[in-house]
Task: inverse folding
């Protein structure tokens, strides 16, 4: 998957909806840190300018831990974390998309790369 396209995504109940432009490259990441492993997230990181929250700014709650660098945003109604925000090591704003929350996304089309977040 090297061609950029626009995906639609959101939470389970529909209170949170967004669009994101990405080629899903660099690849989708399967992180083993304490929160990602419990949630089962598969993440793709995109520049903040490639993400547009269409609905749900007031529907999300923020959870932070450890370095407090990533905002783990989840729907207050259904509890699904379809995306999060933070700062890349370069200082650029970024958004972490849980690709499991993209509408009609074929998980078999990507091979997640394992990331050892537990050791960080």
Result:
């Amino acid at each position: 998957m090297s061609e950029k396209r626009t995906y639609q995504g959101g939470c389970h109940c529909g209170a949170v909806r967004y669009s994101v432009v990405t080629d899903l490259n660099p690849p989708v990441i399967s992180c083993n840190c304490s929160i990602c492993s419990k949630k089962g997230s598969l993440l793709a990181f995109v520049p903040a300018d490639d993400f547009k929250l269409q609905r749900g700014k007031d529907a999300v709650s923020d959870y932070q831990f450890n370095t407090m660098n990533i905002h783990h945003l989840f729907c207050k109604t259904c509890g699904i974390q379809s995306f999060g925000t933070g700062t890349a090591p370069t200082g650029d704003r970024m958004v972490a998309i849980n690709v499991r929350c993209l509408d009609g996304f074929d998980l078999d089309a990507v091979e997640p790369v394992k990331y050892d977040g537990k050791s960080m």
Remarks:
- The mean pLDDT is 91.
